[in-house]
Please model this.
Amino acid sequence: MDKPVLKADHISKSFGQGHTAVRAVDDVSLAVSPGELVLIMGPSGSGKTTLLSMLGALLHPDTGRIQLGDVDITPLNERQLPRIRAERIGFIFQAFNLLDALNVEENILFPAQLVAGGAAAARPRALELMARLRLAERRHALPRTLSGGEKQRVAIARALINQPALILADEPTGNLDSQSGQEVMMVLYDIARDEGRSIIMVTHDPRVEEVADRVLWLEDGRLQKRRASPHDWTACPVCHMRVDINRMDFAAEHRGHVYRLCSSRCRERFLDDPDAFVSGSIS
Model:
């Protein structure tokens, strides 16, 4: 069995003191394998972002231990952590967090300044990522001229520039329209599968559950048994992402059956060769 990319043992985090103290994360343990896509879901205020911040070495746990590959990051101080974060973790944020004064290529290359070789050594990787994420023609554009989907694809490329083993994504589709959100999810899905990078994602979006290898439910700071969804869903035959059974905007018909696709991208793939995706499965 592959060694976990990330392992957290009994970590907790509280804010405040005395009777006003709030235990945001309460005795959470988890391990993530190479290439695994894990969703952390739960209601607002359940501790998801606090947990993600600890896993990303942005917050120290009050108790417990976090192992990132072969490094125990729990005892490291603030002088040691920036290099660990730059080399081993890529971050994707809901608000994109792009630097307004830098163009697309410069934003992508920015984290490379913190690792050996710097931006010059990372430029071929940046060009490859821009081509893959359909950003090549926008490489000199400033963030204010980009759509929400383009901004998030820049953020994904920036997270990947140093080839980290672990990607942490906090509501990466939260500021996007439905189609852009689906496209971003499929990019992350492809990254996990094609590059073997582990992804931990915090999300409220139940449509993405079927893409994940695991779904963890966090409530009141603790991992709980997953609750049943009240919605009626079907699976996109191409990527297996959940689609509302009443949604017809990307539907396609084949041999008398109607299939619900999650996005225009998956619909195009389906129409290219329907029989490759429908063997034994009718929605």
In short: The first strand starts at residue 6 and ends at 15. The CA atoms of residues 176 and 277 lie 27 Å apart.
